[in-house]
Design brief:
By secondary structure, this protein is mostly beta strands. It has no helices and 15 strands. The protein has a five-stranded antiparallel β-sheet, with no helix packed on it. A five-stranded mixed β-sheet has the order 6-15-14-11-12, with no helix packed on it. Strand 9 and strand 10 form a beta hairpin.
């Protein structure tokens, strides 16, 4: 996963296919808007990882008085520099579902691509809407992490 850079504005995307091994290499990339395009390796840039810190998890912390939720809903909150990540994992449904929102100072980033990693491998990819909200269905029963890709940033939030 990485950022696409060229003469236009930076875009975020996930590499879905690589061409034959030759120099320069050509890659097919799924962009945050859902389209796929081909790019050369010179267009690709992978920003450094910024790890998000978990500051709240109802799985290990009691739910504060007056907070919404139930035993079947797990609320998790991460912070990472200027970003705030709220997750709600609904475990009672089969399969489990994950809802989330990414904001920076209360405002959603203009474009972001969220990839659910299961045991370190990409499992599902979705784009956040204009409010920074996203959903992933069919969460695996394994260790999981989110990799959030926005222009010039890559944020990883790990939860189990």
């Amino acid at each position: 996963m990485g950022e696409i850079t060229n003469q236009s504005l930076p875009k975020v995307g996930v590499i879905t296919a690589a061409g034959k091994v030759c120099l320069p290499s050509k890659f097919t990339v799924r962009l945050a808007d859902g389209t796929e395009s081909d790019f050369w390796d010179s267009h690709l840039h992978i920003p450094p990882i910024i790890f998000a810190d978990m500051i709240f998890d109802t799985h290990v912390s009691p739910v504060p008085s007056g907070a919404r939720g139930s035993m079947s809903k797990r609320h998790i909150r991460f912070i990472s520099r200027e970003f705030d990540i709220h997750l709600m994992l609904i475990e009672s449904d089969k399969p489990k579902r994950l809802y989330g929102q990414l904001t920076a100072n209360g405002v959603a980033p203009e474009s972001s691509l969220i990839t659910l990693l299961s045991n370190g491998e990409p499992y599902a990819t979705t784009a956040a809407d204009s409010c920074g909200e996203f959903a992933v269905n069919q969460i695996p029963f394994a260790s999981a992490a989110l990799e959030i890709l926005i222009p010039s940033r890559r944020i990883v939030a790990t939860f189990v």
